[in-house]
Amino acid sequence: xxxxxxxxxxxxxxxxxxxxxxxxxxxxxxxxxxxxxxxxxxxxxxxxxxxxxxxxxxxxxxxxxxxxxxxxxxxxxxxxxxxxxxxxxxxxxxxxxxxxxxxxxxxxxxxxxxxxxxxxxxxxxxxxxxxxxxxxxxxxxxxxxxxxxxxxxxxxxxxxxxxxxxxxxxxxxxxxxxxxxxxxxxxxxxxxxxxxxxxxxxxxxxxxxxxxxxxxxxxxxxxxxxxxxxxxxxxxxxxxxxxxxxxxxxxxxxxxxxxxxxxxxxxxxxxxxxxxxxxxxxxxxxxxxxxxxxx
Length: 295
Ligand code: UTP
Known about the structure:
The structure is a single chain. By secondary structure, the chain is α/β, with parallel strands linked by helices. It folds into 2 domains: about 5-255, Spore Coat Polysaccharide Biosynthesis Protein SpsA, Chain A (Alpha-Beta Complex); about 255-295. The chain is about 40% helix and about 25% strand. The protein has helices at about 35-45, 60-65, 70-80, 85-95, 110-115, 115-120, 140-150, 210-215, 230-240, 255-270, 275-295, and strands at about 5-10, 30, 35, 50-55, 95-100, 125-130, 130-135, 155-160, 170-180, 180-190, 200-210, 240-245, 250-255. The protein has a 9-stranded mixed beta sheet. The protein has a two-stranded antiparallel sheet with strand order 2-3. Uridine 5'-triphosphate binds next to helix 5.
């Protein structure tokens, strides 16, 4: 089960980040010095993916432009002796082979993945949500690919979330298989009170067999009136073996303000240029807040 292709659904409306996302795609918001989507593409490339399909919509053409060459800008940078900057912007366009397809109507994540059926064909493929950014030693997608290859089946990325948070995710019914790998028996999308299987939530990364497309083709709209990927995965895990990997690393949902700001601070602290002064800024700020609390 060699996984060579990845799909990045990025056609959501980004309503949780308005008004910033009224005209700028949420995937193009900068995390320190790179747009969110670049972190996702870099993770896929680091996991050995060769071809990526980004599912976009009519308001998201900034992404196509970003992963293209910009000869005029490169020439200007080279002429002013900025070789490093010119190489940096060229590197964005050479990370992977990137293709695009439009989701003409915002009908849900399941529908966005279904738009990739011609690109994928019969191979197993990865799905990385375009606003979920991971920070880990081993790329999270590589952890999933390795489990998927070992067991020859689909695989979802999971971590345990707080009781109060599980209603925002898909809850998994699992049994232990091997270390951080579990067998998936069932799942439900955004469980209400008393409906969750466990606190193991699906978090933004998947490796799927192409059987998902036949299922998606006939999956009716579910939660929120959208075609839900989870509803199709629920059927897939009954038909075929599916495993879940409790991945090592931290996941940030940059599609909401809290996740976006946490990711910004964590990545900025790690960044060579911003790390030292940001650390000092945070320490000064903390001292100031503590002083204000006392007085
Ligand atoms: P989200 O629910 O996180 O994204 O979807 P959203 O719809 O943009 O969020 P709001 O409006 O702030 O609530 C999860 C992923 O599925 C993609 C999104 O782009 C995101 O990567 N998606 C969602 C699609 O590609 N198409 C859709 O119709 C819905």
